[in-house]
């Protein structure tokens, strides 16, 4: 009887430890997320399943063009691309991104730019027109979806406070035929 009781206790401890480890990993390090919508097409597709790396944003700084997940004002989590960092001046003209006056290539948009025949993929704008400030505020990010014509992003909701960022993402793990690391 004691041997069975001891074995049951050992199994219970192992199960408790496994559940605690899973909770810690999910809450502090990595979490799954499902892409909901078309705002990141062609890079990400509706219902792609991805891993969110929470650790990198707790100890590091975001980089331009990272794909991040954040809590949006509508109590939803959004997936968007970082375009502007704190202190940046952002402008779009002639379908080209300018950050602090310097033109940047956005190769992830090339596929869509080729398909557009009725004007630019990204309508021209300045940061001041969109958020009422010349630069991205300290502690905030300016984000946009890759599907520029159909994305609700910083052009509509304003800049994203860093404390609302869950982490960055770049690994699609489902569906199997789409498994990849996104750049």
UniProtKB/TrEMBL annotation:
The keyword Hydrolase applies. Coiled coil: none annotated. Its EC number is 3.4.21.89. It catalyses: Cleavage of hydrophobic, N-terminal signal or leader sequences from secreted and periplasmic proteins. It is a single-pass type II membrane protein. Keywords: Hydrolase, Protease. The active site is at 39, 80. Residues 8-174 form the Peptidase S26 domain. GO terms for biological process: signal peptide processing. The keyword Hydrolase applies. GO terms for molecular function: serine-type endopeptidase activity; signal peptidase activity. Transmembrane segments: none annotated. It is found in: Cell membrane; Membrane. Gene3D superfamilies: Umud Fragment, subunit A. GO terms for cellular component: plasma membrane. PANTHER family: SIGNAL PEPTIDASE I (PTHR43390:SF8). Belongs to the peptidase S26 family. This is Signal peptidase I. It comes from Cytobacillus dafuensis (Bacillus dafuensis).
């Amino acid at each position: 009887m004691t041997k069975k009781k001891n074995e049951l206790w050992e199994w219970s401890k192992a199960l408790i430890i496994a559940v605690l480890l899973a909770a810690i990993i999910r809450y502090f390090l990595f979490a799954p997320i499902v892409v909901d919508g078309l705002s990141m097409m062609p890079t990400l597709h509706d219902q792609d399943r991805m891993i969110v790396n929470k650790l990198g944003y707790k100890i590091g700084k975001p980089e331009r063009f990272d794909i991040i997940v954040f809590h949006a004002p509508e109590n939803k989590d959004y997936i968007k691309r970082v375009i502007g960092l704190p202190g940046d001046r952002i402008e779009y003209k002639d379908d080209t991104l300018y950050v602090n006056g310097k033109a940047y290539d956005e190769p992830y948009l090339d596929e869509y730019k080729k398909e557009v025949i009725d004007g630019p993929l990204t309508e021209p704008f300045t940061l001041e027109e969109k958020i009422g400030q010349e630069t991205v505020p300290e502690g905030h990010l300016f984000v946009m979806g890759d599907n520029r014509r159909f994305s609700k992003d910083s052009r509509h909701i304003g800049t994203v406070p860093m404390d609302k960022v869950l982490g960055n993402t770049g690994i699609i793990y489902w569906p199997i035929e789409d498994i990849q690391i996104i750049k």
